[in-house]
Amino acid sequence: MLLKRSQPTKLTIPSIDVDTKLMNVGLQADGSIGVPPLDPDAPAGWFDRGPTPGEKGPAVILGHVTALDQEGPAVFFKLGALRKKDQIFVTRADGIEAVFTVTRIVQAPKQDFSSIDTYGNTEDAQLRLITCGGTFNKSTGRHDDNIVVYATLTSTR
Amino acid sequence: MRKLHLIAVPAMALGMIAAAAAGASAETNTHSYQTELKALNGSGASGTVMISISGDQATVTEKVSGLAKTFDGKPYPHVQHIHITTGSQGTCPTMKADKSGDGVISTTEGMPSYGMIGTTLSTKGDTSDKAALDLTVAGMGDSFTYERTFTMNAKTIKALKAGNGTVVVHGLDPAKLSKKAAKEKSDLDPKLPLAATSPALCGTLTASQMDMPIGNPETGGGNTAGMDNGMIALGGGLVLVAAGAGVYMVRRRQGEQN
After folding, report:
1. How far apart, in Å, are the Cα atoms of B74 and each of A129, B36, B70, B91, B186?
2. What pLDDT is recorded for position B44?
3. CATH classification at residue A46
4. What does the alpha-carbon distance between residue B238 and residue B218 come to, in Å, rounded to a whole number?
5. What are B125-140's pLDDT values in tens digits?
6. A132 belongs to a structural domain
7. Residue B216, min C-alpha distance to chain A (Å)
8. A79 to chain B, minimum CA–CA distance in Å?
9. For residue A71, what is the nearest residue in chain B, using CA coordinates?
10. For residue B226, what pLDDT is reported?
11. Threshold 0.80, pTM exceeds
């Protein structure tokens, strides 16, 4: 199942109480992926230099795990609690809601983050939800891990 | 493990601040390519390559493992190149390419499939075909991560756009070859054994479905030690993330030395 390109507008994950608008993020000048702002109410960000959710390839949506200065949870605070077979819903500007099913959840130290696994080409329509995880390292000001949720388009509604 | 990080930390931090000021994605015309490297000549190795090209600046990220580990007691030098074809589709050779019948596809025997050298994936200095056999700038040992940003020549960029660029990593373990092949001299340099220059990994680069981001997503809650709180309130989140990224690069470099 493949859909045509259409701007995603909303992300809903009932199993972890996520219900967020989507903003666009791109590439930073240094080539790293853009991220949404660090305020607690910031939406998740769809990477607009790649497939839209439902198109062939891996669509990428990023969200913060905690807000600036660790002041409370952010949009993807519970991402690590997702389980295989959980459903993810993405509303698109064309009115189609793409339904994805989680296939795996990977939490790995940042140095082991696999760009090719996360961003590499796929034969079908897939989704990647990305946030930070693991211990918040006060000396680096960063979390030690990245969490990547892999999901595949299974239906529309 | 050998790692190369040629992106300067201050430039990275500044770049992110500039991008934050602009508020959106950097407007560059980026092209991304990728391949999975498959074993040739029974090397048993595997790997991945990603290339992001902006203008004539190419960032190559490669991870390989399972290659021959040592050569004369030292880390085995694996010269590696982007081979390019012009009149035919670039591919990886099959055993049919072994015209000499010695059980090894030599570099020359593979050329009808993957073409001439367009770029040498050297660890420093020259990236042209002149550096093709310089063992001192090869990938070293059985497993390595290669990351380098350099000016890529126009003929290689053109071949990549046409789907005719093929990454080839060379260097076999002579002990895994037939007795005959193990004694043969290299078709490229008679001073070297055939094993040293024959292909061990191969993958033809295809266009990525997205503009490939480089490095880790910064999706944590920033909290940089030593930064003034008033400045955080005024400066906003992404500046803080930029500072965090700088710290990260330093930490990663320290990690490599351990």
Report:
1. 43, 27, 5, 32, 20
2. 96
3. 2.40.260.10
4. 9
5. 999 999 999 999 999 9
6. yes
7. 7
8. 12
9. B221
10. 24
11. no
